[in-house]
# Entry
Amino acid sequence: MLEEETYNNRDSEATFSPSDVIPMYYRFLEKCKEKWGFCRTAYIDSADAGTIAEANKFKRETGCIYDFVGAWKKTKIITRIQLQQSWMKTLNFFILDTCKAYINELDTYSYDETGQPEDGNDHSINGCQYAWLPFKDKIGDWSLIKELIKGADD
# Structure
């Protein structure tokens, strides 16, 4: 986790819409390109059809170089958590200390009374997952990971 920007209408005096989000996302991608290198594919929550539509419109109108793709989210949430924890344990996943919102979510993430991950305090976590989910089988030493997380999706 190299870089983050987080925004929330709940905490903002001036609310924003999907049409506002994409130019903000584009500026973030450009900042990251200069700092960390070019990453062509930018993922958006596949359940957020409005933002995906705005991203496609933005790309058509501006000719931007990024491909906006709906996130592939078929890996169970608990497996995502297990994968990320295993990568941290095997030193295949790092978080820069400047990613304070992300770190805060990791520190406050919780489970419900049935032991399932709660749907909250996870927006940065989910956003990060969308970026690595398509590549999960290429991250880390899978012989170690499979030992750490029995039953993970292959």
